[in-house]
Design goal:
The complex is a heterodimer of chains A (255) and B (418). Chain A is of the alpha/beta class. Chain A has a single domain (47-73, 88-254), classed as P-loop containing nucleotide triphosphate hydrolases (Rossmann fold), CATH 3.40.50. In chain A, 34% of the residues lie in helices and 25% in strands. Chain A has helices at 61-68, 91-101, 117-121, 123-127, 134-143, 159-172, 189-206, 217-220, 243-254, and strands spanning 17-28, 35-46, 50-54, 76-81, 84-85, 102-105, 177-181, 209-213, 225-230, 233-239. In chain A, strands 6-7-8-3-9-10 form a 6-stranded mixed β-sheet, with helices on both faces. In chain A, α5 (134-143) runs antiparallel to α6 (159-172) and α6 (159-172) packs parallel to α7 (189-206). The two termini of chain A are 16 Å apart. Chain B is 49% helix and 17% strand. Chain B has helices at residues 2-11, 13-51, 81-87, 154-159, 203-210, 229-239, 249-296, 298-306, 311-350, 364-389; strands at residues 57-61, 78-79, 92-98, 100-102, 104-105, 121-125, 136-141, 149-153, 167-171, 177-187, 197-201, 215-216, 218-223, 244-248. Chain B is built from 10 helices and 14 strands. Classes of the chains: A alpha/beta (255), B alpha+beta (418). The A-B interface holds A 28, 37, 56-58, 62-63, 65-66, 71-72, 91-92, 95-96, 98-100, 104, 106-108, 110, 112-115, 119, 123-124, 126-128, 169, 181-182, 185-186, 213, 215-218, 243, 247, 250-251, 254 and B 1, 3-4, 7-8, 10-11, 299-300, 303-313, 393-395, 397-398, 400-402, 405-407, 409-418.
Amino acid sequence: MSATTSMTGSTTTPSTAAARAEGVSKYYGTGDATVVALKDVYVSLEAGQFTAIMGPSGSGKSTLLHMLAGLDRPTSGEVYLGDTQVSSLNDKALTLLRRDQIGFIFQSFNLLPTMSAAENIVLPIRIAGRKPDELWVKSIVDKLGLADRLTHRPTELSGGQQQRVAAARALASRPQIVFADEPTGALDSASGTELLTFLRKAVKELGQTVVMVTHDPTAASYADRVLFLADGHVVDEMFEPTADAVLDFMKHLGA
Amino acid sequence: MFTATLRGMLAHKVRLVLTVASIALGVAFLAGTLVLTDTMRLAFDQLFGKVSAGTDAVVRAEAAYSQSEGISTSRAPIPASVLAQVQKADGIRTAEGSVSGYALLTDNGGKAVLTSGGAPTMGYSLPADPALRGDVELLSGTAPAGPRQVAIDATSAEEHHIALGSTIKVLFRGPTQEFTVVGTVGFGGEKNLGGTTGAYFDSATAQRVLGAPGFFDAINASADPWVTPAALVQNINAVLPDGAEAVTGATVVKESTDAVNEDLKFVTVLFMIFAGIALFVGSFIIWNTFTMTITQRSREIALLRAIGATRRQVNRSLIVEALLLGALASAVGIGLGLLVAKGLSLLMDAVGFSLPSTSMQVEPRTIVVSLLVGTLVTVVAALVPAYRATKVLPVEALREAVPGSGNRPGSASSPVAS
């Protein structure tokens, strides 16, 4: 395993990439207080793949996710979602892009406590003013084993169940790409395994593109490909990872 | 979005109740004022209408000033000789002179029957013809006849145990005199007239004790059934000497009503100031609450922004929340306003100024104005906080609050957990 920072640059064509970052940098603050979160990052995320982004805290992995998901704008560089140049979009267009093309799974679930599971699942679709595709939603709900939990409020659900509701919400509108930010971070290992198995299945069976930020080597082992970040750079990547291999590499990085 | 808004409101019941209360209070003052003034206005309209019911024309001395000031205009008395001339006018059924003036009743023990709340103590001539009495009615006994008889208001009779047949002293501007009580008088179901005490005499006695012999305050006339009041007024004016004028009963009612309304304006303005202050304070509470709400809900708002709610949708959902809140608070305020109006009228009753009774007047205007004002104030107060909410960044949904997660930006720990 060797550091191959350049290989993810221009070798992939836009047609197969679900999302790309080209020379993306992100700075926080100004002057002496400037913090560099990302430095000239090139990544290309393949459609229909499960990609994990790993790295120690402060490596910029979350920042990279924010940029790719259109939640934040890079200081310089370009982000593409499919063929859409994200940086050229105004706030409204970017919001609609997130609404229609992107699904989110957050570490702390972020369900609306006043709404039932079913209502939470179709919330993005409702916000768009559309009718949910009942059959599709039902198939996801069944896959996640949530059928008998739909009328429950988030407070009546376990953490694992809540995160599965969040996963259903992310997939309900058939997004181009699902971004998951430490999705297993707040779950016990059994619930985490359940969720990761589902994400794996979504990629394999439904052709869903999934990008996950995690610091958990076991979680990363469910991915097709792992990108390693350190100090705002992509330092390496790994295909068909195993938990042990990832852990070894992370130890190496952390040292 | 709309459901989310509604659920969010209902989820915080205490906050909902407090914010509703803050606006409802102001609206209650507003609605209460409108209801009370409408009620008082109608009550006085009815009162003056009833008092002068049956009187088609009123003959009075022309006012010294061209500007009429209604009941407060002081007019010179009319010579009794005019009555004979008026009675000759075409279409007249009957006409009588009326006199009123200061008269203080005393009870059987000689103690003065005082009024509370500054209501006047009055003496009146009681018309012989019941049609000219308006809604003054004999509740017991007979009408006073002759120089030694008086009828008094039923309240004074009851509260001071003045029985029919007893002899009481009545104080005037002139010398005090003794009268035998022969009857009690009511006013269209009320036992007194807005807290005043009343002593009723026959016309000649009234002239002698209340005014001046040979003079009336005014002459009230009733028309033949086929003659309109306007025609009667015309006929009377044709025979009147200079210095006297005839107007319709309705004109007098209107003048009186206008004068009272002028007085009520003060009450209205006072309560409106209260309402204004309450709403002003209420708007700050709303502003503050919405600002707090948005801080508390910033994660929720960030989530909505992240999963695709536009700034406009966030803004609108909060405005809708303010709108609902305002409408609800206004509705509650209108309900409270009725209680306020009721309370104020009871208060006035307690200090002896019993208003002529009529049911609470809730005009459509009251509802519309109260709803509009309450809702508008709430929405305007929420505008700035709602705008601020649109500045919540979607990224904030990802700033994790879960302890030990270690992926907050700037976090010191570097967990490589299994």
